[in-house]
Amino acid sequence: MRSIWIKRRLNVSIPLTKGGHTQSSLLITKASSLSYRLIALLFCLFAFTNLNAQNAQKLDSITPIRDNIGDLNEAAIRKGDFPGAIRLPGTDVSLAIGGFIKAVALYDTRYNEKNEILLPGTFSPENIYKGQTYMGAKASRLYFDGRSTIKDIDMRGYFEMNFTGASGFNLRHAYLELSNKKGQKLLMGQYWSLIMDLEAIPEGLVEPTISGLPFIRLGQIRFSTPLSKTLALSVSLEEPRNSDLKGVNMIPLNKYPLFVGSLSIDPSSIFHFSIMGMVRPMSFADLTDDSQNPATGYLSNATLIVKPNDANKLTLSGLYGSGASNYLLGADSNTGYFDGTRTELQTQHGGFGAYRHEWNDKFRSNFAYGMFVGDEIPNNPNPHIKSSTFAFINTFYRVNKYVNIGVEWIYSAKENFNGGKFINNRFQFGIQLF
């Protein structure tokens, strides 16, 4: 089963201000005003882009049947080797059920947690000790993909899970997507955040959790449209996750959604450029006087991809923000701190470079290096992250279009303010079927 998708995505940077403290009535008034303005902006963008999209050709790209992040057989999916859909009896609905099995064996020199996904931002004295050997297949996936068409609207319902959750199952994606012949799309459900440029994600054996990369799946409402043959725009409202805002006598609140904009430019098949911006309106309850307090974070991200031919791909990406830890790889769970008087958010920056080379029809290799850096949070007495580093090199052997075998080495390190530096090396081998 195949469908047309706007593969080139874009992002817009959005200026932000840093919030202070206020009483609950003032906060609610400001938040309401912000919400109304965001909704008005969404309507204006929809009206403007709808008029322009009528004269724009649909971007010519193919949507992978399944999520290609961490998928070693993504090339076979992209070429349509796995159609696999059936027509449900008595309906106009086509359904595909699929996935893959990925088995991994790894050795860590210091890390103790039995987790196939490596996150240097989570390193601590409790889990960096003597190392481990691990073997499993939790990164295997199962998906259901249903599609139908009503008049000129293509509808897609997609559900995907793996087995990394505490109870055995972990929901990766679950969304409904509507698209029209103008190339416009409306998506609602859980999917990769719009702050990410999916084309920039390097290829890793399990998942490439490289420092300095936005990387999160969120509930969202997203609208995407082509503006021209080479330009595409997307905007979204996304689910807030504010557990990284800490402090004394306070409770973080998840009242207001994120606003994310994305702009992508593809002047030719060789170059791809994108810019993304996120506004994060956080708030928390001060338990000493039962007041509500704002703390506005933001994040900007830019990516350049150069593909001179099918055998080579170079990616450069950088980000800058404040109070965005939950949305960044390499960060920890301390994005800001309230000491009872004032709130300080961490200023954050980072980025990565990646290079992919196809040696021949059977072998390919990837190299990537990324770094995250956070400023000290002045009023936070607890250890919190200063920097993290993540580098990997891997080689994959394509047995056939359904089987890939890979080896990978990962170096990862984290340094804290208030003491503590942790380093781990991971050596792993894996095989993916289907």
Task: Provide structural commentary.
With 434 residues, the chain is mainly beta. The protein has a single domain (24-433), classed as Porin, CATH 2.40.160.10. The protein is 8% helix and 50% strand. It contains two helices and 22 strands. The protein has helices spanning 24-53, 74-78, and strands at residues 85-87, 94-108, 132-136, 141-150, 153-162, 170-179, 185-192, 217-226, 231-238, 245-247, 250-253, 258-265, 271-286, 291-309, 312-322, 336-338, 343-345, 347-358, 363-374, 384-400, 403-417, 421-433. It has a 16-stranded antiparallel barrel. β6 and β7 (185-192) form a beta hairpin. The longest helix has 30 residues, at 24-53. The radius of gyration is 22 Å and the shape is globular. The two termini are 16 Å apart. The model is unreliable at 1-32 and 41-64 (pLDDT under 50).
Number of domains: 1
CATH level-1 class: Mainly Beta
Average the pLDDT over all residues and give the rounded result.
85
**Parts with pLDDT < 50 across at least 5 consecutive residues:** 1-32, 41-64
Q: Mind telling me which CATH architecture this is?
A: Beta Barrel
The rounded Rg comes to 22 Å
Q: Total number of β-strand segments? A: 22
Helical residue percent? under 10%
